[in-house]
Amino acid sequence: MKHKIRLILKCCLPLLICHPLHVAAEASFSQGRYINSAADFAVLPQRERIAPENAMLTERLEQLLPQLMVEQNLDMWLVLNREKAEDPVYFTLVPQPSFAARRTTMLVFNRLADGTIEKLTVNRYPLGAPYTAAWQGGSLDEQWQALADLIVSKDPKTIGINVSKEWPVADGLTSALHSRLKEVLPQAYQSRLVPAENLVVRWLEQRTATELAVYPHIIGIARGVIAEGFSSRVITPGVTTTEDVAWYLRERFSELQLPIWFMPYVSLQRPGTPCDKDTAFCGESGVIQRGDILHTDVGICYLKLCSDTQEMAYVLKTDEEDAPAGLKAALATGNRWQDILKKEFITGRTGNQILKVTQQKAQAAGILSSTYSHPLGFFGHAPGPTIGMWDNQGPTPVQGDWKLYANTAYAIEGNIKQAIPEWQNQLAHIKLEQSAYFDGKTVIYLAGRQTMWHLVR
To answer: Are 316 and 456 in contact (CB under 8 A)?
Structure first.
């Protein structure tokens, strides 16, 4: 197992190498990094992913979960689900390979007096390590009675269940299972059932040391595939369409056996493309021509952790060696917006507070921007503090009121618009998104960030 973790960490090293053509320009912005290709990164075969994934799960269950249950004052946490209707949090809790909550699967996390957590199952099919089977086999009625007997024997004062009005990921207990649970529990224990929504959000948003070690490698792969797509290896100006590039990205990830969590999106802008201050997203599809700027948005998941990345490219005209000065200045403005946003990450601040200060400082700097950043982790759009929405640049109730914790990951996502002199001062829309983590003091990009245009020759 250890040699596989070391392999993953070793493969992060290519991320530290800047492309020589981009070093000088990157110096003006911190953490700029050029990644040339996904071929520079090892991707473990499906079978070899199981050991590191399960090692990281065990680390989370043994080190993180006890802290979070104390933090949320829960003595017991129940995750109850049925095959084909799994709780959203279920697959973050069970060892691989696991394809479903077979029949009815019951996970019971019981906090002991010494602070450790008993990890128990009440299932027809035992899960194995790191879980201990408290009951197995028998009928469904016997299974429910075994769960009730186990709860009574442990006598928890607070029992967390996954019901939530506001957080979809914490609302995985179906109505039928909720009703059955109350039917089998003695009356005295029914009043001890409380929503576990805060625990679920904290479990999903908090990253461990090992996860933060491997995350840069995952983001590097995503950025590497984007670099391949935004190059002459894929694009023939005048022939290739934006849809062709999107499908290259999808098929390249498939070739690497990496699932995407949404279809890659590619658009183009050029002089004459409609784009004004109030346009939510400027861009269109079609045949890519020289002089176009391109944008993509991609997201993959690997070793259970997900990415979300947006980058920009320029298709050189035949007499050009670099992007026009106006476009380079616009990307630099986008980088300045990123710097403004990440400096407002302060432990304990809410997403709404971060958004408000970012907007004020960007406006004072004369930047026309939109901010809509979100947490990353087991989901691409993960729970945690929402920092603006693309269609709501005001406060977001509940999710925007969630406070910022250390050792959490985010998509630093948003855009700027800027007039381009070479386009008769038409606005260009620079849409950026880079994966990063907050260590409690600083936002650190997991695989650097784009500070130079991808150039298609």
So the answer is: yes
Burial of 394 (0-12, 13-18, 19+ CB in 10 A): exposed
> Rounded distance, CA 361 to CA 340, Å?
7
CB neighbourhood size of 114 (10 A): 6
- 154 — phi, psi (to 5°)? -85, -25
Classify 73-195 by CATH class: alpha beta
Query: Which of the four pLDDT bands, split at 50, 70 and 90, describes residue 1?
Result: very low
CB-based contact 302:224 (threshold 8 Å): no
Phi-psi category of 167—alpha, beta or left, where left has phi over 0 and alpha has psi -120 to 50?
Answer: beta
Q: Going by C-beta distance under 8 Å and a sequence separation of 6 or more, which residues neighbour residue 444?
A: 31, 436, 437, 438
Lowest mean pLDDT among 3-7, 93-97, 283-287, 450-454: 3-7
Using CA atoms, how far apart are residues 422 and 292, in angstroms rounded to an integer?
Answer: 12
Residue the block writes with tokens 């469904």: 140
State the DSSP string of 34-87.
----GGGS----HHHHHHHHHHHHHHIIIIIHHHHHHHTT-SEEEEEEETTB--
Is 50 exceeded by the pLDDT of residue 23?
no
The single-letter code of the amino acid at 272 is: G
Domain boundaries, the chain: 2-45+207-456, 73-195
- The first and second tokens of residue 299, run together, are 């997201």
Q: How far apart are CA 272 and CA 325, in angstroms?
A: 19
Percent of the chain that is helix, strand, coil (3-state, to 5) = 35, 25, 40
Tell me if 164 sits within 8 A of 152, measured CB to CB.
no
Per-residue pLDDT of 170-181, as tens digits, reads: 999 999 999 999
> In this structure, what token pair is assigned to residue 196?
């576990």
The band of 10, judged by pLDDT with boundaries at 50, 70 and 90, is: very low
Sequence-ordered alpha helix ranges (H) in 256-414: 325-343, 351-364
Angstrom distance (rounded) from CA 373 to CA 385 = 9
Could you please state the CATH topology (level 3) that the domain comprising 2-45+207-456 is classified under: Creatine Amidinohydrolase (3.90.230)
pLDDT of 19 > 90? The answer is no
Name the 3-class secondary structure at 449. Answer: strand
* pLDDT digit string, tens, across residues 416-427: 999 999 999 999
In total, the chain counts a number of residues equal to: 457
